[in-house]
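Appendix B, Record 12. Input sequence as logged:
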Amino acid sequence: MREFPSISATWIAIALMVKGGAAISAGEIIALPLARDTGLFELDPDFNLGTQRDLPAGALGDMGDRRRCRILFQVDLTPLPEGEVMAARYRVEVTMEPQSGRRASTFALHRILVPWSEGRQRGDLPGGQPAEEGETTWAARAHPDLGWSLPGGALGVDYAADPSATAEVSRTGEVVFAFNAKGRADLESMRDDPASNHGWVLLSQSEDEPKTARRFASREHRTTPPLLEIEIASPAKDSVLSIRREGDRLVIVAEGTGLRLESSPDLEDGSWEVEADAGTEVNGGVQFEKFLNEPARFYRILTGNASP
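Logged structural output:
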């Protein structure tokens, strides 16, 4: 690994993105199906919903305190190659919303911290049938004896307290949950340690408000099952030959063909702008130049055919 001294905020930003000598090249976007899913239904706490074609999440109408619904799902991450998770999106179809008095709600994905099982029950709306032994329900992680820390599971114990992704849901149709930095780090951790991968719970962040419930397509849905899209960046080792200052300019020399330089003001935002479609060919590489009096930004070098 090459060591580059830091000169300014702009220089530091570049050094971070090239990881001390390895430029980031965007990889393909990998779409993974769900491996299992089920629903937790407070009104029928001993029901399992393991093979429903769509599942409820949120709060139903005025049914006292027993109106919450949650969805558990898990994706097999072992097909993912090594590399940093640059972006991830959970795409799921909202198939049904309240007929009247509906309320928009922010839904969230929280990482599940404990094992659970899908089960194989299906029934008429709202769904499910009495659970068989070992199947997951609102009352139990494994019916009938192994319970959650609280019925339905508890944030901070059964589920991570902070969400991995959120999305505003106000209508039927596709909803996209974009993973935040924590969620992307969790994906890397779950990929590298499959035993820690218990998936996510999808729940409304306004479960105390009635009529926020929606039905979401499950993996058994006939036309639009959910998908998890993940973009992996593979390090191109030793592709950055040098980073140096020449007067008021920063000069980056990289090795390769069809390279382009991109920048972003904020890594969390995830938006990138093309700074140069091609650099200047020099002995042993391609040279890019930036003025140091520009606002500090993060930079990355991609191959010309990479799609960020």
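The chain has two helices and 22 strands.
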